[in-house]
Design brief:
12 helices, eight-stranded mixed beta sheet, 41% helix, alpha/beta, globular
C-alpha cells in the first residue's frame, strides 16, 4: 500500500514537471515570437528611415542642380565671339551646280599628224618650265612698263589637249600636263605687274560641253565664254550670262585646220563642226586695219549663214588692229586685248563692258601699244595666249610693242 502511494506521488511529480516544461516552452515561443516581431518592426523602421534619407538626399541634389543652373548666367558675346554652347561648325551646304565630267581617260589613237578620240582631234602640246619662265618674264616686263593706273591681265588658255584629256593621259603622252604648267607660269608672275586669270579651272569644269572644235585647234565661243567668266572674276565684275546676248548664230559645216593635218578623215567630213557666235548687244560695228594698212568697216560677228561656217566670223579673223566703239556706253572706258587667234572669239565678249575696245594681233601689228594706251586713256590691258603660243618668239613679239 505504501509502495503504491510512493508510485502515485512520483507520477504526480512527473506530470507537474511536464506541464511546467510545456508552459516554459510556450512562454519561450511567445517570447521568441515577440522578439522576432520587434526585430522585424525595427528593420522596417530602419529601411523606411534609409529610404527617406535617400529620397531627401536625391531631392536636395535636384534642387541644388536647379539652383546651380539658374545661377549660371549667359555670357554676353560680341560679333566676333561664339557662345560656348554653340554646336560644332560644319561645312555650309553648297548650291554650286554639279556639272557632268567630260574628261577623257583613254589615250587617243594616231590620226595623220594628230591623235583622235571620240571623233575629236588632239595635238599633244605642253612646253616646259623654261618656256614658262620666259613667258612669265615677258608678262612681268610688260606690266612694269605700263603707265600708272593701267591694269594688266594675263590669261593663259589651255588647248583641247589640256582641258579635255585627263592629267594622267597628258603625262603618258608627253611627260607633262597643261594645268601644272599654267600654275607654274602664274606663280612666276608678280602680282604688282599683272593679275592672272584662272581660266583653266572654269573651262575644264565645263568640258562635257562643246567648248573646242573637233576639226580645229581653236576653242568654240563657249570655251571662250568660260575664259571670259574667269576674266570677269579677276576684274571683279559680273559676267553677262549667255542668254544676255539677244542675237546668236550657229554656222554649220565647219572643217578646221586640224582636218587637213589628220588627212581629211571621213568621220569629220560627214559630221563637221558648227560655229556658234554671240552678237554683242551694244553694237556689231567695228573697223579693222588690214596688213596693208587699209581701214575697213566690218562686223564684230559676221553672218555666215549662207556658206559653210568659219572661225573667221569673229572680228574678221587675224587682223593687225581692230577698233570697236560701243555707243550704248558713254563712260569713256577702254581696254586693249593683245592676242593670237584664240582672242578673236574672246574679243566679242568684251564689247558690252567698254565704250572702246582695241584688239591687237601681236603677230601682225607693228605700232606702239604704249602710245595707244596713253592716247586713248586705256585702263585695262589683257594678254591672251593659248599654250601652243607661249614660245620665246611670241614673247619677243609682244614685248616689242611696249616701248
Amino acid at each position: 500500500m505504501e509502495q503504491e502511494n510512493r508510485n502515485g506521488n512520483r507520477g504526480k511529480k512527473n506530470t507537474a514537471t511536464m506541464v511546467t516544461a510545456i508552459i516554459c516552452m510556450a512562454l519561450c515561443a511567445v517570447a521568441l515570437g515577440l522578439i522576432i516581431m520587434i526585430s522585424v518592426n525595427l528593420m522596417k523602421e530602419d529601411e523606411k528611415e534609409t529610404k527617406a534619407a535617400n529620397t531627401e538626399a536625391y531631392v536636395i541634389s535636384q534642387l541644388d542642380a536647379r539652383e546651380n543652373t539658374a545661377a549660371v548666367k549667359p555670357v554676353a558675346t560680341t560679333a566676333t565671339e561664339k557662345p560656348t554652347t554653340e554646336a560644332p561648325t560644319t561645312e555650309k551646304p553648297t548650291t554650286e551646280e554639279v556639272l557632268p565630267d567630260g574628261t577623257k581617260y583613254e589615250v587617243p589613237a594616231p590620226c595623220g599628224d594628230l591623235y583622235v578620240l571620240d571623233g575629236q582631234l588632239f595635238n599633244p602640246c605642253c612646253a616646259g618650265h623654261g618656256t614658262g619662265d620666259y613667258y612669265a618674264s615677258m608678262v612681268n616686263t610688260v606690266g612694269s612698263k605700263l603707265p600708272e593706273g593701267v591694269q594688266l591681265y594675263n590669261l593663259v588658255a589651255p588647248t583641247a589637249f589640256g582641258a579635255c584629256l585627263s592629267v594622267d593621259v597628258q603625262e603618258e603622252m608627253i611627260g607633262a600636263n597643261q594645268p601644272e604648267l599654267i600654275d607654274y607660269i602664274y606663280s612666276q608672275v608678280d602680282p604688282k605687274n599683272a593679275k592672272t586669270v584662272n581660266a583653266y579651272q572654269n573651262i575644264t569644269k565645263h568640258n562635257a560641253e562643246y567648248i573646242y572644235f573637233n576639226s580645229d585647234h581653236h576653242w568654240t565661243i563657249r570655251g571662250a565664254y568660260y575664259a571670259y567668266q574667269a576674266w570677269c572674276e579677276a576684274k571683279g565684275i559680273e559676267a553677262h550670262p549667255i542668254d544676255y546676248f539677244k542675237k546668236q548664230y550657229a554656222f554649220p559645216g565647219y572643217l578646221g585646220y586640224f582636218y587637213g593635218l589628220a588627212n581629211k578623215p571621213s568621220f569629220l567630213s560627214e559630221n563637221p563642226d558648227t560655229v556658234e557666235a554671240f552678237v554683242p548687244n551694244g553694237t556689231n560695228d567695228m573697223v579693222f586695219t588690214d596688213k596693208d594698212g587699209n581701214e575697213i568697216a566690218w562686223d564684230v560677228v559676221r553672218d555666215y549663214s549662207e556658206r559653210n561656217g568659219s572661225y573667221v566670223c569673229f572680228i574678221a579673223g587675224d587682223q593687225p588692229l581692230v577698233y570697236i566703239e560701243n555707243p550704248a556706253i558713254k563712260d569713256g572706258s577702254a581696254c586693249m586685248l593683245v592676242k593670237e587667234s584664240y582672242g578673236n572669239a574672246f574679243a566679242t565678249l568684251l564689247v558690252d563692258h567698254y565704250q572702246y575696245v582695241y584688239v591687237v594681233d601681236y603677230r601682225y601689228y607693228e605700232g606702239n601699244c604704249t602710245k595707244m594706251i596713253n592716247d586713248h586713256n586705256i585702263k585695262d590691258v589683257i594678254i591672251l595666249n593659248n599654250l601652243e603660243a607661249i614660245g620665246g618668239k611670241r614673247c619677243d613679239m609682244i614685248m616689242s610693242l611696249f616701248k
